[in-house]
């Protein structure tokens, strides 16, 4: 039987100074000694008759069940409950892994703690067993209140010896049964209503049914629930080794369970999260996170980045042309795509002649020896078939004469098995000594090169391009921003996920400092402060290309004026990035993105691109200040920008309207017309 030891027996609120009767803001400013700013002057503790441990700070009340570890937090007129933590996973000294419940600790000692503005309860758990044998593992769980913010704060603190903690949950999932909806930056953003009719079971996962932060499961490290006009927002403050388990059913609602993952075999360090009470819904949550991103330096405005990289200004209001010189199918030994540089030049000249093209950002794939997705990271020298060095130089000269920017696709995570420098000693090595190998892309089988080696390849390849007179205006470094960080156990280059992100950022910085524009695949939070743009965002869809949940531009609400995001401008429903019900052009409008332009565009394509480009030119440096769902199903939406521009779209009818401060433009995307 579990023995619960409580090391304190406070049954009443502490006696506070006279100022305690004031609101905390006034009490804080009324302080005349350091003692009066201690957390216990603002956050009271008591043990209720029910056995619940309670923390009270103004209208914020945290109740912790010291046996089940369920938590209820109340504040701002709302109350939200965390379920009991799910099973943890431990590794024993003999290498075997066992599941256990944190609640199975034979000893739970509750100790009060305070620092800065935080006061809370630390539960010291010990006496775990596996197969009847005692384990030397100890875990401390902290739950507290930060009086300076009114937030609840949670920490998981491992004490590992021979037994290591591999996976844990703290706190448990926010209970989704009694809320209106769950809001997540899952890809661009989704809202899952409580009564969503379909089961959602761990989409876009990275490890089993766990989706890691900084992948498609969570572009940004937060999520929340809404109930009427109140919300609770869960923010992961140690995101590098964190993830979620997402599940929804019509009966139980949505469950988003925080998961703490080991790093290089051990939990290793304290994991931390907080719960914020929010007046309002998904917009208010996004704006709260925008404040957090500014506070921690993740947010850097486009204006700041232009001051550092002046060529970046050319992207505002510019279309993006994504072209491929060559893609070789190594399995069938044929060219899957092939347009030589002279052909690319002619196609762009046609656009100039028929429509005019004063601005363009040209992203070019496949300049390497065997083209796109082949031989990486040894893709160079420049391939001869598309025109060789001379053809590439002429293409660059043509682009620069027209004031266009040209960037190259480069890939420094995949290492193809037929790459000249392929060596198992360079690869990302799993804990068991094996390597990831797949045969998915055009170039055939590939493994993964450790990110500790990536910058050396970035430097070598771009030095070569500079020496032959074919230096680009920037580079797109594929997958670095979308694939969560790799871990590597090779003794010569052990690497944690945190170190992996650091190595990837060094590659981004090299491109930015030596070439100019740096981009990657998708807009994950850790990379925003460095990147100038990404290739795209995606939306949460199921295997049948249907939305799961209602798509929302949560990322845009946070970061529209911090990074450029291109959008398709096609008017047909569905694409690789969207559900089959969605019109991409309308998403480009609602998020005021940078428009993609097909190199084979017709007049209607160009008109759509120009509409989006004008919108981007006007508001590309501005915040999206508001977003509204104008219908319960979210098919009709409206966004507002800082200059007062209002964009309204209807995915069912195809109608759209852009109301600028000085004019209004509207039309229909299905039966194409512009008024």
TrEMBL record:
Keywords: Signal. InterPro entries: DUF5696 (IPR043751). The keyword Signal applies. Residues 1-20 form the signal peptide. It comes from the Bacteria. The keyword Signal applies. Pfam families: DUF5696. This is Uncharacterized protein. It comes from Victivallis vadensis.
């Amino acid at each position: 039987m579990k023995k619960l030891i409580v090391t304190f027996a406070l049954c009443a609120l502490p006696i506070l100074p006279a100022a305690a009767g004031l609101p905390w803001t006034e009490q804080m400013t009324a302080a005349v000694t350091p003692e009066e700013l201690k957390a216990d002057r603002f956050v009271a503790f008591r043990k209720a008759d029910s056995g619940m441990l309670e923390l009270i700070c103004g209208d914020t009340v945290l109740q912790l069940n010291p046996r089940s570890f369920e938590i209820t937090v109340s504040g701002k007129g709302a109350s939200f409950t965390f379920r009991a933590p799910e099973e943890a996973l431990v590794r024993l000294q003999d290498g075997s892994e066992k599941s256990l419940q944190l609640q199975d600790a034979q000893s739970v000692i509750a100790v009060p703690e305070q620092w800065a503005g935080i006061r809370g309860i630390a539960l010291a758990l010990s006496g775990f067993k596996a197969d009847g044998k005692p384990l030397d593992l100890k875990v401390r769980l902290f739950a507290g209140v930060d009086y300076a913010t009114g937030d609840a704060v949670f920490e998981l603190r491992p004490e590992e010896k021979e037994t290591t903690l591999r996976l844990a949950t703290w706190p448990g999932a926010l209970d989704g049964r009694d809320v209106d909806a769950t809001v997540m930056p899952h890809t661009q953003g989704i809202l899952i209503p409580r009564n969503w009719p379909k089961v959602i079971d761990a989409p876009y996962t990275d490890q089993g049914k766990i989706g890691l932060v900084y992948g498609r499961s969570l572009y940004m490290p937060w999520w929340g629930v809404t109930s009427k006009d109140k919300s609770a927002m869960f923010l992961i403050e140690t995101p590098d080794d964190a993830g979620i388990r997402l599940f929804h059913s019509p009966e139980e609602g949505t469950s988003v369970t925080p998961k703490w993952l080991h790093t290089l075999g051990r939990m290793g360090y304290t994991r931390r999260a907080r719960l914020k009470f929010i007046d309002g819904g998904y917009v208010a949550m996004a704006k709260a996170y925008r404040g957090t991103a500014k506070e921690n330096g993740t947010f850097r405005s486009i204006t700041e980045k232009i001051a550092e990289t002046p060529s970046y200004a050319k992207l505002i209001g510019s279309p993006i042309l994504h072209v491929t010189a060559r893609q070789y199918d190594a399995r069938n030994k044929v060219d899957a795509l092939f347009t030589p540089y002279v052909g690319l030049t002619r196609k762009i000249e046609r656009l100039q002649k028929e429509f005019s093209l004063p601005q363009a950002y040209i992203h070019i794939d496949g300049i390497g020896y065997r083209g796109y997705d082949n031989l990486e990271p040894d893709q160079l020298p420049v391939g001869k078939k598309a025109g060789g060095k001379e053809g590439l130089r002429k293409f660059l000269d043509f682009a620069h004469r027209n004031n266009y920017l040209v960037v190259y696709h480069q890939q420094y995570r995949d290492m193809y098995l037929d790459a000249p420098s392929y060596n198992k000693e360079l690869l990302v090595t799993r804990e068991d000594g094996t390597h990831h190998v797949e045969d998915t892309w055009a170039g055939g089988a590939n493994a993964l090169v450790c990110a500790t080696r990536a910058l050396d390849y970035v430097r070598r390849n771009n030095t070569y391009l500079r020496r032959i007179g074919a230096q680009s205006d920037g580079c797109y470094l594929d997958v670095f921003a979308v694939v969560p960080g790799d871990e590597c156990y090779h003794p010569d280059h052990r690497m944690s996920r945190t170190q992996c992100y650091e190595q990837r950022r060094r590659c981004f910085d090299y491109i930015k400092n030596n070439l100019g524009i740096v981009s990657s695949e998708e807009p994950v939070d850790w990379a925003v402060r460095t990147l100038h743009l990404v290739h795209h965002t995606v939306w949460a869809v199921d295997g049948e290309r249907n939305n799961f949940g209602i798509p929302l531009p949560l990322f845009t609400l946070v970061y529209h004026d911090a990074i450029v995001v291109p959008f398709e401008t096609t008017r047909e429903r569905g694409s690789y990035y969207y559900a089959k019900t969605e019109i991409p052009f309308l998403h480009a409008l609602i998020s005021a993105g940078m428009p993609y332009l097909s190199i084979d565009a017709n007049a209607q394509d160009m008109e759509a691109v120009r509409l989006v480009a004008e919108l981007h030119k006007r508001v590309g440096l501005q915040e999206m200040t508001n977003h509204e769902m104008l219908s319960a199903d979210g098919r009709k939406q409206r966004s507002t920008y800082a200059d007062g521009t209002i964009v309204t779209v209807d995915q069912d009818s195809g109608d759209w309207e852009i109301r600028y401060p000085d004019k209004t433009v509207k039309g229909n995307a299905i039966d194409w017309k512009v008024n």
